[in-house]
Amino acid sequence: MSKLAHPSSLLPYGSLLLLVLVAPHLPGIRSFRHELVLVGILAIVAIGLGLLMGYAGQVSLGHAAFYGLGAYTSGVVSKAGLHPLVALPIGLLLTGTLAYVVARPIFRLHGHYLAMATLGLGVIVFTLIRQLEPITGGQHSLIDIPRLEVAGFRFDTDLSYYYLVWACTCAVVLTGRNLIDSRSGLALRAIHGSEVAAESLGVDTTGTKVKVFVLSAVLGSLAGSLYAHFSTVLTPHTFGLELSIQLVVMVVLGGSESVFGPVLGAALVTLLTPIMREMSRQITGGSGGQVEIVVFGLILMLMMVFLPRGLVPGLAALFRRRAAAPAPIGTLGPAPVPAGQAVETGALGAVRADPTGREPG
Amino acid sequence: MEPQHLVQFAIFGLNIGAIYALIALGFVAVFSITGIINFAQGEFAMLGAMIAAWLVRAEWPLPVAGLVAVLAVAAVGALLELGVIRPAGSASIVTLIIITIGASVLFKGLAVMAWGPDPVRLPPFTAGPPLRVLGARLLPQDLWVLGTTAVVVVGLSLFFRRTLQGKAMRAVAMNRYAARLMGIDARRTSTAAFALAGGLGAIGGIVIAPSASAYWDMGTGLGLKGFVAAILGGMGAGGAVLGGLVLGVVEELCAGLAPSGFGGYKDAVAFVILLGMLFFRPGGFLGRVPGRGGL
After folding, report:
1. Fewest C-beta in 10 Å: which of A88, A109, A311, B4?
2. Could you report the predicted ipTM of this complex, rounded to two decimals?
3. Are B92 and A109 a contacting pair at CB < 8 A?
4. Cβ-nearest to A290 among B97, B112, B262
């Protein structure tokens, strides 16, 4: 937490907090409260995935599985009569255990093979959710999931749930930020830079990757539980490959090198989809509605070609160049320096006992 | 379970397996030469099927429509390489994966815009009554699928071994730098690999379209299964064909022999096999060095 004390580094957190507090009351946005809740929920998954992708450099195409596991565990357990706050940790435990069990063999693989293995995991969990009808309801959906009720207060309006979800999201942002600056975070960045170099400097690469994988799975499960009690209805297709890909899009769109990137990405993907659908309906006159998919694909390709680090680090770099001063936002990202140098600073930083010894810029 | 049922499932399996094999070959061609897993590979099959069906509906004769569709999708493949893969330069694997995922999403969206969300029909290549093989039905279209795949595999093998362009591609797959030192234009081979992958995918999509339905999302499943087949075969050309056929047959047998109510697990079979393979024998069942392709 030490870095948070610096006034300039508080700026982005303050802005986020202020935005979160006032957003649902702003005219024009008020009617989107439902979507804003979803943004907060998906942002939690995206932050977890962002830690895995941006810091450990491992892509997962199966994160919808963890989200789905959390959601269905919460749904099934709380429908069986247990309190949602009991169901939630059961989901976390279940998902975390699964992630831990599969993580070791999965991280023996690299690059494409790793991506494909996570994708396979996602498809298998999706198929199980769809087929285990007696438990999950299968194609007929799991309905009538109780709403969250704590100490007599029922979170049954969009606004109350909005504040609950975003409190969690903000907590996850802070956790993620602290993790990045911790010793493990530095180890992760070193792994992203070069696994061989990190290993030669004494970093337990597999162990560190497994840890962040389990963490990101648990965050996915938490978000899933929040979703279950918000939507009260779960259908299998919500948790398919499409969502896994959307989550990856959120992370790369916003930028995985900052905890704010995935949050921005989640907001853009969740909010732009209905807006673009509406626009395409107006342009094509009712029948259309596919324009948004095309735009989605185009954005994805062009972003990767022209702004591969994502919006937040890209904009931050632009901002920094404009200001030509010690960057307040720069302290968030791991590497304001070119990639080659980042390898060195990351790897060297990781073996230092005191993580605060490395101050970029 | 009567024996003719087993034969019938095997026929179904070989059919769909042949398509997996064609798509797997596309994966192998691109991976061996560029090191990229092209997540848009399944969409090549979809585009092939949709373009062919569209041209046939516009009264084009089927052979011409098929040929034009294959060439058009090969051009799409080449354009994908020239348009986004090459400009991305030496980007990381994650970046390249996401670029091809973006391309796949784009192709699907364009397909819905152009041809609508409903399945389109492509007539069987030749009419005629089904044949009887060991008590099982073998449709003329099944013969077309297996025959086309056989011709493509033999043709591809000759191409890689007998022609200059084919030999150049194999050389680049073996060692890009050494190939460049020998005066081979490695970048052009990359474009050629994507074009080849497009053509192979399109052929697969066109021959399967009459027995399955052609629609905008048909490529997702085919692409994933094709990739599993390629992994099973250790990312080599010969292994990919074997992997496709084995995967198709195992999948259909599992679906057919499973107790009723478990047929829905069919889609997971390929991925259970995939994970088992990746965890315990990452080189594929031919035991290659993992991660190294070959043509």
Report:
1. B4
2. 0.83
3. no
4. B112
Q: What is the largest CA-CA distance in chain B?
A: 60
Helices and strands counted in chain A (H then E): 15, 2
* Contacts B278 to A, Cβ<8 Å: 105, 109, 113, 116-117, 120
- When scoring B46, B271, B288 by the number of chain A Cβ atoms within 10 A, the one with the most, hence best to mutate, is B271
Greatest CA separation for chain A:
62
Q: What are the boundaries of each domain within chain A?
A: 2-353
The pLDDT tens digits along chain B (295 residues) read: 677 888 889 999 999 999 999 999 999 999 989 888 899 999 999 999 999 999 999 999 999 999 999 999 999 999 999 999 988 877 777 788 889 989 998 999 899 888 888 898 888 888 888 888 888 888 889 999 999 999 999 999 999 999 999 999 999 988 888 899 989 998 999 999 999 999 999 999 999 999 888 998 899 889 999 999 998 888 888 889 999 999 999 999 888 887 776 777 887 888 888 888 888 876 676 655 544 456 7
Q: What is the DSSP string of A281-320?
A: HHHHTSS---HHHHHHHHHHHHHHHH-TT-HHHHHHHHHH
| Inter-chain touch A131–B272, beta carbons under 8 Å | no
* Domains of chain B with CATH codes: 3-280 (1.10.3470)
d(CA A176, CA A215): 10
Chain B environment of A291 (Cβ under 8 Å): 109, 113
Q: Quick check: B201 and B45 in contact, CB under 8 A?
A: yes
Residue A250 token pair: 């959120």
Handedness of CA A80, A83, A88, A94 (dihedral sign): negative
* Residues of chain A that touch chain B, judged by Cβ-Cβ distance less than 8 Å: 53, 57, 59, 105, 108-113, 115-117, 119-121, 123-124, 127-128, 130-131, 241, 245, 248-249, 252, 288, 290-302, 304-305, 308
